[in-house]
Amino acid sequence: MTTLTVLATGPLATFQDRGRHGYAHLGVPTSGGADRGSLMLANRLVGNDESAATIEMTLGGLRVRADGDVLAVVTGADTALRHNGVPVGLAAAVVLHEGDELAVDPPSWGLRNYLAVRGGFDVEPVLGSRSTDTLSGLGPPALTANLRVRVGHAAGEWPSAESAPPNTEHPRIVVLEAHQGPRSDLLTAPTALYSGTWLVSADSNRVGVRIDRAEGSSYPLLTHRDDAGELRSEGVAHGSVQVPPSGRPVLFLADHPVTGGYPVAAVLTDAAIDLAAQLVPGTEIRFRRR
């Protein structure tokens, strides 16, 4: 049985796959990888099914040791990887032999990276998923140092390529495309979302990204209409841009609650959800309507 030993975790490292679907009516979030595109790419590059379990790390710092031969890859945020101290490429498969170490540095751009190994990580599924849900507490606990993780048997066909060029575009202002939200009419000026720039707050996690206007900005926050009344709680989609009374929107990510009681001004596209998962505090963003 091949295993990886976790030597260091960084700020946060969790197991993530494509999530647990079909339980929203029971109040269970989908969870899964915050940047789904990077998670699925990692699995493809080692020949796994796209839904195999990976390790999602926040702000790097993960260090693992192979206890047998394993094919591994890291995708996601722009970071430096080191195989036994020697730099290796991001989004490029590398063979780890017994005793080899792989380290992931803090990203120079972006927030989250994904480590996949051929065969996936063999952790106990909960409701059909191996994802750690930070909101409900479902799934395996967050990784800790000295944890030994088994490599599973989720491998499929070998990938058509051994590497994929990472996205090297790092714009100063990140543009997020979004569709009009189902409750935008409850805001006094819903188009204000698309005016000017917003700043990512430090009050952000896998549940959602809170944004605010820069200090001194001439662009308004979003306000509820006086006659809107109290909105009943209703289902909210992954990628919803919900507006609380403060006027500072929250972009719902993978571990978001399944219901909400504030107006949804917009819903991010799939590609924009992945971008939102890589936003670090202080990043400037704009919204573009689809």
TrEMBL record:
Residue runs in coiled coils: none
InterPro entries, per database record: CT_A_B (IPR003778), Cyclophilin-like_dom_sf (IPR029000), PxpC (IPR052708)
Keyword field: ATP-binding, Hydrolase, Nucleotide-binding
SUPFAM superfamilies: Cyclophilin-like (SSF50891)
Every Carboxyltransferase domain range: 25-290
This protein's name: Biotin-dependent carboxyltransferase family protein
Organism (species): Gordonia westfalica
